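Q: What does the predicted 3D structure of IS1 transposase look like?
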Amino acid sequence: MVAHVLGSRSRKSQQKLLRWLSKFDIQFWCTDNYLAYQLLPRETHSIGKRFTQGIKHQNLNLRNKIKRLNRKT
């Protein structure tokens, strides 16, 4: 993980994350099919559970180890 943004899954949050990540040479993006991710370039954007399963597992591990990241609902 190189960067993260805490907030809603809005276009504004994604733009903030993309500003942080613009410093790095990102080769490909793995996301679910959420509308805000349409800002990503199609040629480097992979959509689907197959690609995001590892990311979700890492988020689960972080939530278990860092209690401030726990969901409130």
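A (community wiki): The structure tokens above were generated from the sequence. The chain is about 40% helix and 10% strand. The mean pLDDT is 82.
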